[in-house]
């Protein structure tokens, strides 16, 4: 499994990935995420979008952030830390252990501190998204009592 930066060679195959219908309320489309990444970078913020590949084929998408963006709904933990801003595994690739492996790979990447040192990584998820909650807990993320908008914030030390 590997992470590949999103560029003109893989953009369309990543945009073609989608989650199951019942998951669409929990995660933005990859198109929305990549547009948001472009806008963030254009505004001077950090957004690092990657395709997740297994055996040479695209199976998911992950996007990282670093530090604060000035969003009034942003949790305090954002200051000086990494964020897994988006994380998805395509519908045909789910229930195969790829999400767990991709999350571990994502944390390995963040431990290289690509944008600077940090104590932890945070992420957020919809309260009704029990699948995400279980996955993140199994990887060592713990809810810290903060919210990002309506979403629950969970944190893992790097």
Structure characteristics:
4 helices; globular; alpha+beta; 31% strand; 158 residues
What do these coordinates show?
It contains 4 helices and 7 strands, in the order βααβββαβαββ. Helix content is 25%, strand content 31%. The protein has helices at residues 11-15, 30-42, 98-110, 130-138; strands at 2-5, 48-54, 57-66, 82-89, 120-125, 142-148, 151-157. Strand 4 (82-89), helix 3 (98-110) and strand 5 (120-125) form a beta-alpha-beta unit. Strands 1-2-3-4-5-7-6 form a 7-stranded mixed β-sheet. The chain is of the alpha+beta class and 158 residues long.
Show unreliable segments. none
Assembly level:
single chain
Sheet with the most strands? 7 strands, mixed
- By DSSP, the count of extended strands is 7
Please bin the fraction of helical residues. 25-40%
Overall mean pLDDT stands at: 95
In angstroms, what separates the terminal alpha carbons?
A: 21 Å
Number of helices: 4
Given the helix and strand composition, which structural class is it? Answer: alpha+beta
Order of helices and strands: EHHEEEHEHEE
Strand order of the largest sheet: 1-2-3-4-5-7-6
Radius of gyration: 14 Å
β content, as a range?
Answer: 25-35%
The general outline is globular
Topology (SSEs and partners):
Blueprint: E1 2-5, H1 11-15, H2 30-42, E2 48-54, E3 57-66, E4 82-89, H3 98-110, E5 120-125, H4 130-138, E6 142-148, E7 151-157
Parallel strand pairs: 4-5
Antiparallel strand pairs: 1-2, 2-3, 3-4, 5-7, 6-7
């Amino acid at each position: 499994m590997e992470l590949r930066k999103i560029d003109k060679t893989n953009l369309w195959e990543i945009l073609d990935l989608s989650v199951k219908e019942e998951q669409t309320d929990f995660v933005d489309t990859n198109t929305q995420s990549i547009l948001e990444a472009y806008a963030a970078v254009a505004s001077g913020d950090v957004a690092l979008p990657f395709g997740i590949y297994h055996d040479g084929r695209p199976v998911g998408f992950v996007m990282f952030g670093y530090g604060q963006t000035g969003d009034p709904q942003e949790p305090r933990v954002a200051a000086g830390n990494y964020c897994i801003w988006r994380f998805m595994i395509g519908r045909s690739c789910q229930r195969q252990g790829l999400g767990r492996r991709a999350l571990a790979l994502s944390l390995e990447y963040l431990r290289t501190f690509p944008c600077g040192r940090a104590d932890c990584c945070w992420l957020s998820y919809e309260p009704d998204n029990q699948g995400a909650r279980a996955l993140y807990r199994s990887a060592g993320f713990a809810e810290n009592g903060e919210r990002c908008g309506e979403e629950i914030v969970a944190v893992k030390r790097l």
